[in-house]
Automatic annotation (TrEMBL):
Keywords: Glutamine amidotransferase, Hydrolase, Lyase, Pyridoxal phosphate. Transmembrane segments: none annotated. This is Pyridoxal 5'-phosphate synthase subunit PdxT. One of its GO terms (cellular component) is glutaminase complex. It comes from Streptomyces gardneri. L-glutamine binds at G50, E51, S52, R111, I140, R141. Belongs to the glutaminase PdxT/SNO family. It catalyses: aldehydo-D-ribose 5-phosphate + D-glyceraldehyde 3-phosphate + L-glutamine = pyridoxal 5'-phosphate + L-glutamate + phosphate + 3 H2O + H(+); L-glutamine + H2O = L-glutamate + NH4(+). It comes from the Bacteria. NCBIfam families: PLP_synth_Pdx2.
């Protein structure tokens, strides 16, 4: 048990700053990560929302694709929001050509499943393991999870679709808790990192 784990936020593209703030509010030491060497210094990693095709391309360009796949497969705790959830999927239903993922969660995801930017919405979401009521789910061109393997725990659904999952040390949500000022999900992730390090 490590009381103050160091948690990186993958800083290739997306809403990195908001995650750094949410992690600090949840009592973690948080820092941006964009170079392979920096992976050695972290106990866990957040993969932010943004655009998964861009994150995928930049991860290859920055030499992070393979090292990150290995760390995740070896059990480093990771939390992906929205585009980050897509990056943790073992399979994308509708990838752009050449789009790759880090994998780590045995699930098939559908990109942009909840519609376009102007169909973005907020909704209360009840998440298993989060106490004191639903979280405010912010869905922005959000993916949903089409199907999961036997090892995957479904933590939340919205409108009959899976929007939060966990497999071992990998956590993912279709929505963006870092944009709400409610740090309960980041707190859950920080606890996962503490327990693992
Ligand atoms: N808010 C988001 O992260 C949007 C994700 C985006 N639709 C993608 O495919 O990466």
């Amino acid at each position: 048990m490590n009381p103050s784990p160091v948690i990186g936020v993958l800083a290739l593209q997306g809403d990195v700053r908001e995650h750094l703030i949410a992690l600090a509010a949840a009592d973690a030491v948080a820092r941006p990560v964009r170079r392979p060497e920096e992976l050695a210094e972290i106990d866990g990693l957040v993969i932010p929302g943004g655009e998964s095709t861009t994150i995928s391309k930049l991860a290859v360009l920055f030499g992070l694709m393979e090292p990150l796949r290995e760390r995740i497969a070896a059990g480093m705790p990771v939390y992906g929001t929205c585009a980050g959830l897509i990056m943790l999927a073992d399979k994308i239903l509708d990838p752009r050509s050449g789009q790759e993922t880090f994998g780590g969660i045995d699930m098939i995801v559908r990109r942009n499943a909840f519609g376009r930017q102007n169909e973005s919405f907020e909704a209360g979401v009840t998440v298993t393991g989060i106490e004191d009521g639903p979280v405010e789910g912010v869905f922005i061109r959000a993916p949903w999870v089409e199907s999961v393997g036997a090892q995957v725990e479904v933590l939340a659904e919205h409108g009959g679709h899976i929007v939060a999952v966990r497999q071992g040390n990998a956590l993912a949500t279709s929505f963006h808790p870092e944009l709400t000022g409610d740090h309960r999900i980041h707190g859950l992730f920080v606890d996962m990192v503490r327990a693992a390090s």
